[in-house]
Amino acid sequence: MNTHVWTALLCCAFLAALPVPALSQTCSSYSFSGNARFASCVDLPVLDSYLHWNYDRTTSTASIAFRHSGASASEWISWAINPSKQQMSGSQALVAYQNPSTGSMYAYTSQITSTDTTLPEGKLSFGVPSLNATFENGEMTIFATLQLAAGSENGINQVWQVGPMSGGSPSIHPLGGDNERSTGTLNFVSGMTTVSSKSKQRNKNVHGVLNAISWGTLMPLGAIIARKLELR
């Protein structure tokens, strides 16, 4: 087998063996209006959402911005902390939507129980000194300052959701698909995040499909190329 044949086969084998690269974070290049700046951010894996934050360890205070792109006036958005589980039920939530009567954004806090379907207003277990929301260029954003318990920097359960409006009020969100996978953990200091096991499974499935394409397409293609080169 000549040098050209070996080169073609080795190149294809190398490409097929490459791991699927992680998607680069797009949140890091985002610019907020009003000169708001955040030191850390993460592209959340589902629901076209992003979280930006600053965290002060000395006061256990987090300033966050939760963004949902591709939003419409018929949707509500929410970002929440669950003290015990990775699920919406039991969460301490920030909620926002566009008031259909005034066209302005309305943001409030809500304690979610297993029977809540309309996200009722209520105080949270931690302080929220400031809270507001914007709706610009097809993107809804919740801005908030959270006065958290000491030790929260070690990791929290985060939940984010998008759901429909009904009669001018939030209605129950879909219970399957990406709405079921919108949970994970977050470390405010290190920036480390994890996603729900269902999101991980989806990522594994995507990885498996891409590997199958690599080995099922690139390697046979390399053999064909090598064969043609050998026949010259």
Can you give a write-up of this model?
The protein has 232 residues and is α+β, with helices and mostly antiparallel strands. The chain folds into 2 domains: 34-195, Cellobiose dehydrogenase, cytochrome domain (Immunoglobulin-like, Sandwich), CATH 2.60.40.1210; 196-232. The chain is 22% helix and 35% strand. The protein has helices at residues 3-17, 197-231; strands spanning 40-43, 49-56, 61-69, 75-82, 92-98, 105-111, 127-136, 139-147, 156-166, 169-170, 183-186, 193-195. Strands 4, 5, 6, 9, 10, 11 and 12 form a 7-stranded antiparallel beta sheet that branches. A hairpin with a 4-residue loop joins strand 2 (49-56) and strand 3 (61-69). The radius of gyration is 23 Å and the shape is globular. 26% of the residues are buried.
What is the C-level CATH assignment of the largest domain? Mainly Beta
Q: Using only CA atoms, what is the Rg?
A: 23 Å
Low-pLDDT sequence parts: 5-23, 199-215
Name the structural class.
Answer: alpha+beta
Q: How many domains make up the 3D coordinates?
A: 2
Question: What's the shape?
Answer: globular
The biggest beta sheet is recorded as:
7 strands, antiparallel
Order of helices and strands: HEEEEEEEEEEEEH
The CATH architecture category of the largest domain equals Sandwich
